[in-house]
Structures are given as structure tokens and as C-alpha cells.
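Notes on consecutive records. When two proteins share a document, each keeps its own sequence and its own C-alpha cell line. Never mix them. Below: protein one.
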Amino acid sequence: MPRFGMRKTVHNFISDFLRDGDFHDDVSLESLGLDKADIMMLITRLEDEYGLTAFTSEEDKLLEQAVTANDLWKFLQEINRH
């Protein structure tokens, strides 16, 4: 999947979750009102969307490091290479 398509999907998933679509991808997910459980749910949904599977350790690492929407799509790009 091209980077732009994956980036757009991540943005759309977050927009749908927030039910208030407009935000910048470099804004903190926490500032948008997402907590760790919300972010984990988004990670799982995005993996399902693309048929990707990350190791639990990779997901745990992302959960600790995911600050923005950009972080989420970069993670998907990374596990897509496996």
C-alpha cells in the first residue's frame, strides 16, 4: 500500500473515532482525547484493515511511543515490510 493511502486511512480512522474529523496528523493523540486503550484499539483496527500482524512486543513499544497519527502510520509501514 502506498504511504499516502496508509496515512489517509490512519487519519480517517482517527477522524471517525473522534466524530469530529479535522485535526493535523502531527498533533498529540492525547490532546485529541485518546487514551492508551483508544490507541490500542486503533492499532488493532488498522492491523485488521491491512491484514497485518505485529508482535506483541512491537505493539507494546508503539503504545509507549505513539504520540501522533504520523507515529501510527509509520508503525504500519514498518510492520508492512515484515
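Protein two starts on the next line and is unrelated to protein one.
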Amino acid sequence: TRAMAVPLLSERITTNCRLFAAGEPLIGLVDVSLGY
């Protein structure tokens, strides 16, 4: 549900922003060549 997804998505975005700023690999990247 939306109530469950929003906190999880917010945490993922926050984590990936920190990783990106530190030059680290991001979590949950989409591999377009695999079709998803």
C-alpha cells in the first residue's frame, strides 16, 4: 500500500543520494538490457 511504500522508497532515495555523493554504487539499479 501507499502507506507502506512511501517510507521504504524515501529511505532508498536517501540512501542512494548519500551513496551517489560518496561515489559508491547505488542500490536497486535497473538493468535495461535485461528488460526491467
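For the record: The CA atoms of residues 10 and 16 lie 10 Å apart.
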